[in-house]
Amino acid sequence: MFSLSPIKIMVIVAVILLLLGPDKLPEVAQKLGSWWRALKNIQERVETEVRQAIPDLPSSGDLARLARSPVNLLNQLADRVDAKETEAATTNEPVTDESPLIVRPAPAPSTPREPNASTPPDPSMN
């Protein structure tokens, strides 16, 4: 795959310096800086709008940390459940979990569905 070692990066920078020369280098650096600033402003605006729409969303640093190490997220969730269970055991209350990170499956329907007479049977069921 494509990997950049420090030596390769120095060679690329040296070639760019030779190609641009001392007269064009400040202009190019200024354009790159303005583009970078514009990208950062766009990122901040998007993050602000998302935070207004979803106020309970964890910070972007927390999300990046969770994406890098999902095992830590699972450990934190397990610790929360353990803490709630021990708290419920001491107070004799049922355990309820209102955490938005845990997805529970939908309950099964109480009555079995009858096949519709207007739909043909599935040929893969033969």
Question: How helical, in percent, are the residues?
Answer: 55-70%
| Sheet with the most strands, sense and barrel status | none
DSSP, total strands = 0
Q: How would you sum up the global shape?
A: elongated
Look at the helices and sheets and give the structural class.
Answer: mainly alpha
SSE run: HHH
- Can you give the mean pLDDT? 77
First-residue to last-residue Cα separation: 48 Å
Please tally the helical runs, counting DSSP H or I stretches of 4 or more residues.
3
Low-pLDDT ranges = none
The figure for the number of domains is 2
β-sheet strand percentage: under 5%
| Rg, alpha carbons | 28 Å
Task: Jot down its keywords.
126 residues; mainly alpha; elongated
Write the layout of secondary structure elements.
Elements: H1 6-53, H2 60-68, H3 70-91
Helix pairs in contact: 2-3
Task: Summarize this entry quickly.
The protein is mainly α.
Q: Could you explain how this protein is built, in words?
A:
The protein folds into 2 domains: 1-56; 58-95. The chain is built from 3 helices and no strands. By secondary structure, the protein is an all-alpha fold. The longest helix has 48 residues, at 6-53. The chain is elongated and about 75 Å long. The protein has helices spanning 6-53, 60-68, 70-91. The chain is 63% helix and 0% strand. α2 (60-68) packs across α3 (70-91).
